[in-house]
């Protein structure tokens, strides 16, 4: 890391911070106009963007990068048009800024309001997918934030072409182009993570290891999750056909997703009947089955080891454990769950109520697939990421993860001394909304 | 740190965690009953508590601890009764748990709810004040959390007597006494900070250095603030008499508070007239004045150095700077402010609007004292602390800082596969509240 890189980076981020001080004041109309200008510019520059992406893809192939990565990198005309449609959809979302959460008279002429406002500057670090630049830029504009984008080096030409188009679009709008910047050097990631005075939220997009690295190397809040170890518990009172369908969907509908299950917990009473059913169905989908000693009594399984319970396979593998009770299932989830999404299948309402109440996770599901844990399926309109943090925002996060609030107090010369001591005035504390 | 300490600590905290899995399900009535039982037990054990406190105070005096610390340590019958009244007031606050924030049909029979729920286990670390045990315990019970309390060793007998009484009270209630534990060894702080699997929020109560130490030594979220560098900007369009009164209140009403100002920014146009007025008033209150070169032209001041702008005095000292414009004031606040509370005095509504919009702080005030930045004055009912973090909870935090939410999804065998591919079902996404 040379001085030559360090100085421009700091200057760039300070410029974004500086510009972001005004983006929070833009009207909904001004922000939506900026989004439409971005969409049009992306359409205008589409040939240039696709050519740049072609260059990245050829380079990636020449370097022998994995096919899965090249697939994520590839931006064809359809995918680009889809991303542009996404920009216009963000324009259609409700403006998260300026919402009055509290309006309260503290005393005559002394009015407190709690208003939503942008966080400031977002730092987004992603691998491969250049369309992420388009999506996150549109969310940043709508939420009134500045944004610093750092893409993977394999996508550098695509990202540069996209950001050039976005800047051209923003030049036709009130959202300052200086509030959106692209970093291109890998060495800049570590510097970005250290700039907690200027950057307010880090959004990492990539593998679990990548997210964990980011979390461990910054004081800036990180929106995301490192692990997605989700469980499905099949209670003794389950509808077994329903339980099979939900198990198959939760494991196989998209096994690499964070909301796919890794472990199936089965009540001992139904294990002899249910395990052969579910294992047949999973094996028909090509799932590798690993089980504890008890489950191996009923079906032929690879014996599970202690590490299986703590592993996110991200693959067509499931571990199976037989439990004696709901409490044993809760205990297992409490020990191994990552707080992402946990589900129960049962027809017993009291058992379901206890499970939903006692499991501590961003999502607690009853008689449905864990794969529903997703911002679009929840109807949030857009998903910034899924957070397994305890404090909000938790779970799938939409635009609300990109805003905060501040207290605004307006008086007419009010001082605290008048509300102190033996002749203290009383507060009225009257809510006005 | 010996094994002998380590094992009981882990066992204690695991017990609190275990017990806290059920406290979130208690009804409002059950929690209020527990609070009344605590209040009555504290009344019953008052003589024992006061005697224990007497012992702590004598010990502190014998050890020559500072008088200010002994004053905070001292618990007389009045102060104890005040704390007990506080417990009953917490019973009167609205229950923050179980609130339905979102209720949405995703499709027929597939219902999503977002419900508020406790965080889990609170870790509260405080110095001296034994009445903090009473306050935070009552807030933990009301919010359905477990709590691990670590008081200063100078208050050990007081804390033990108080927790004994609280446990006796809880024994008459449905809130399990095991969900509330007191740590007594100083070595246990570091261990507590490492137990991020079992503890969900750390609340430090003490000096700025103490809070910063805690923030730098844990992965657990910390509720609080290390710095309170607040500014008051007197605009050229200020009512000068009002500006003097607000300055004096903001600086002197309680100078050790985090919401007291450290720096006064004065517009150049009114500086020649305003500075003599405000300096006379501040000096009459015993305030030491430090100023930049320009302000020293108008009044006799100790020249301020670069470090003054970055210092929280917590004392009767103020630094003064003359600025040429609102933008220069905003720039100074952006550089030196700690995001706590920032205020402007002006009769110009447009200037006020710009200040309130552009200043990035938990509190932005117009024509009133910064000392109003406080949970009780805001009408929050109880204050857990003041947060200068960007993500919510921000500013003075009431019970809402002790809760989070989870998404609950209830279906009837719904799987994601049915909503995918060419014949995908559509979501209805219909809000039910």
Question: Nutshell version of this structure?
Answer:
The structure is a homodimer of 433-residue chains. The first copy, chain A, has 433 residues and is of the alpha/beta class. Chain A has helices at 3-23, 28-44, 46-62, 67-73, 77-92, 131-142, 156-170, 188-194, 208-216, 240-252, 271-284, 293-298, 326-336, 349-358, and strands spanning 100-107, 110-118, 121-126, 146-150, 180-183, 201-205, 230-234, 261-267, 288-291, 302-303, 317-323, 341-345, 363-368, 385-387, 395-397, 403-414, 430-431.
Written description of the protein model:
Two copies of one chain form a homodimer. In chain A, strand 9, helix 12 and strand 10 (302-303) form a beta-alpha-beta unit. Helix content of chain A is 40%, strand content 21%. The first copy, chain A, has helices at residues 3-23, 28-44, 46-62, 67-73, 77-92, 131-142, 156-170, 188-194, 208-216, 240-252, 271-284, 293-298, 326-336, 349-358, and strands spanning 100-107, 110-118, 121-126, 146-150, 180-183, 201-205, 230-234, 261-267, 288-291, 302-303, 317-323, 341-345, 363-368, 385-387, 395-397, 403-414, 430-431. Residues 1-5 of chain A have low confidence and may be disordered. The radius of gyration of chain A is 25 Å and the shape is globular. Chains A and B meet through strand 2, helix 10, helix 14, strand 13 and strand 16 of A and strand 2, helix 10, helix 14, strand 13 and strand 16 of B. Strand 13 of chain A pairs parallel with strand 16 of chain B.
């Amino acid at each position: 890391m040379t001085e030559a890189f360090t100085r421009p980076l700091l200057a760039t981020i300070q410029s974004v911070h500086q510009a972001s001080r005004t983006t929070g004041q833009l009207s909904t109309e001004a922000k939506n106009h900026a989004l439409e200008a971005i969409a049009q510019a992306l359409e205008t520059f589409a040939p240039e963007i696709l050519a740049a992406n072609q260059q990245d893809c050829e380079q990636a192939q020449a370097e022998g990068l994995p096919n899965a990565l090249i697939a994520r990198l590839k931006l064809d005309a359809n995918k680009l048009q889809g991303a542009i449609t996404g920009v216009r959809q963000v324009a259609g979302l409700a403006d998260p800024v300026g919402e009055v959460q509290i309006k309260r008279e503290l005393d005559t002429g002394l009015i407190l309001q709690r208003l939503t406002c942008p966080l400031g500057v977002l730092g987004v670090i992603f691998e491969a997918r250049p369309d992420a630049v388009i999506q996150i830029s549109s969310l940043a504009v709508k939420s009134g934030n500045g944004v610093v984008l750092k893409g993977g080096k394999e996508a550098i030409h695509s990202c540069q072409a996209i950001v050039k188009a976005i800047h051209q679009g923003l030049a036709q709008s009130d959202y300052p182009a200086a509030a959106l910047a692209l970093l291109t050097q890998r060495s800049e990631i570590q510097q970005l993570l250290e700039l907690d005075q200027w950057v307010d939220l880090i959004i990492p997009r990539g593998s679990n290891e990548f997210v964990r690295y980011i979390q461990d190397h910054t004081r800036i809040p990180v929106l995301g999750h490192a692990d997605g170890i989700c469980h499905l518990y099949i209670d003794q009172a389950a509808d077994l056909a329903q339980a099979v369908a939900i198990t198959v969907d939760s494991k196989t509908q998209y096994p690499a997703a964070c909301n796919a299950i890794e472990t199936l917990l089965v009540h001992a009473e139904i294990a002899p009947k249910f395990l052969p059913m579910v294992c047949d169905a999973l094996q028909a989908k090509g799932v590798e089955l690993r089980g504890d000693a008890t489950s191996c009594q009923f079906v032929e399984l690879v014996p599970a080891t202690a590490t299986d319970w703590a592993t996110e396979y991200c693959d067509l593998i499931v571990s199976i454990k037989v439990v004696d009770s709901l409490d044993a299932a809760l205990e297992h989830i409490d020990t191994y769950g990552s707080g992402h999404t946990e589900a129960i299948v049962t027809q017993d309402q009291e058992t379901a109520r206890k499970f939903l109440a006692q499991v501590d996770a961003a999502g607690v599901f009853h008689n449905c697939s864990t794969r529903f844990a997703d911002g679009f399926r929840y109807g949030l309109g857009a998903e910034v990421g899924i957070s397994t943090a305890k404090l909000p925002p938790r779970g799938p996060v939409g635009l609300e993860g990109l805003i905060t609030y501040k207290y605004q107090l307006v008086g007419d010369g009010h001082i605290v001394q008048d509300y102190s001591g033996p002749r203290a005035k009383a507060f009225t504390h009257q809510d006005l909304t």
